[in-house]
Amino acid sequence: MTPRPKLNEVADLAGVSLATASRVLNGKQGVANSTRERVLEALSDLGYRDVPVRQQTNGVIGIITPELDNPIFPVMAQAIEARLARQGMLAMICSATSDTVNEQEYLDHFLSSEAAGVVVVNGRYSSPEIGYAEYMDLAARIPTVLVNGVDRDCPLSAVAVDIASGGSMAVRYLASLGHRRIGCMVGPRRYNSTRQLIAGYESGLESAGLGSDRDLISETMFTIEGGRAGTAKLVEAGATAIITGGDLMALGAVAGLRSWGHEVPRDVSVVGFDGTSLVSYTDPSLTSVRQPVDRMAQSVVSMLETAGRGAHQLHLFEPELIIGRSTAPAPAPA
Asked: Which residue has the higher pLDDT, 89 or 270?
């Protein structure tokens, strides 16, 4: 009769955690193919033969996103799901909104069902007053990765675009086009992403030799309607260019400017944020700060494995400025 493998021996020889070795021996998903092969090879090297590896029953990776009408969220979730599928892992995408199942209910479900891992995109942790405590409890039992909305002190495995860098990049580009009254339209200030965009915006102004003006910062919602409403204040303040916290906000800004008789970009230039595929098909096509979604998704999948071994890190990705037709040189002074 083949002896029962000693988990610590297998884990030590394979160079993985006890939790990862256990997931392989129990046939659960959430483990990279290369790691699974190391564990099985270690099992063989230790002389264990014909040890049955139980079929996984809870190998789902939960991906929790906010509402899906903002294009960046389904794009990010789909990219992560595709990467997981290539690793032979099944993902379940869940949209947490005030009108449906809330985020905590999804977290509780994945914890009780012993999911192979959980990915949370722009979760409630995005608000500093919520923090990371409830996610740390989850991460102690299930590999957990947070995506965007985190601050630099995040104590968990996290992948994020460098929003501050993107904001600064957009300001410097607009300044190079001769704009001196550059507005910044942001979401609610209770979010980390908003604070980071404002910080990058102000840093960009400083590096371009431009002074800051509180009238050139407009707080609104991350929607088309919010973009339209938030633009009015910036136009009144004399902005000739507007940086927004999202592509939907940028579309709202363009619609609002047109309804007030302004032409984009002749009168006012507009920059979005996220750079999803829709920016190429708008009129005019949007200049936008693009998130490197594919590379971020790959990092998420890699981090699910390391998170399972108790290793935590924050991986910040530099965004890319995609130039469309919604930006142009500043208009000549009247």
From this structure: 270
Q: 137: which 2 tokens?
A: 């409890």
Q: In this structure, are residues 329 and 177 in contact, taking their beta carbons and an 8 Å threshold?
A: yes
The domain that holds 225 is classified in CATH as 3.40.50.2300
Label residue 56 by pLDDT band (50, 70, 90). very low
Rounded to an integer, what distance in angstroms lies between the CA atom of residue 19 and that of residue 114?
A: 13
Q: Which two tokens stand for residue 199?
A: 């910080």
pLDDT at 50: 53
Going by pLDDT thresholds of 50, 70 and 90, the confidence category of residue 329 is: very high
Residue 275 has pLDDT above 90, yes or no: yes
Residues 199 and 267 in one domain: yes
Looking at the structure of the chain, the number of domains it has is: 3
Task: For residue 5, give its domain range.
Answer: 1-56
Tell me if 98 is assigned to some domain. Answer: yes
Residues composing the chain: 334
Where do the DSSP E strands lie in the chain?
60-65, 90-95, 117-121, 144-147, 158-161, 182-186, 217-219, 241-244, 269-274, 287-290, 314-317, 320-322
Cβ-based burial of 51 (10 A; exposed 0-12, middle 13-18, buried ≥19): middle
User: Of 132, 217, 199, whose CA–CA distance to 162 is shortest?
Assistant: 199
- 24 vs 136: CA distance, rounded Å: 24
The whole-number pLDDT of residue 24 equals: 76
Res 158: pLDDT: 97
Rounded alpha-carbon distances, angstroms, from residue 239 to 30, 136, 189, 211, 215: 49, 43, 21, 13, 10
pTM over 0.85: no
Write out the H or E segment, with its range, that includes residue 3.
none
Examine the pLDDT at 231 and tell me if it is beyond 50. Answer: yes
- Which residues are paired to 159 by β-bridges? 147, 315
Instruction: Give dist(CA 289, CA 273) in Å, integer.
Output: 5
Structure tokens at 291: 């998130």
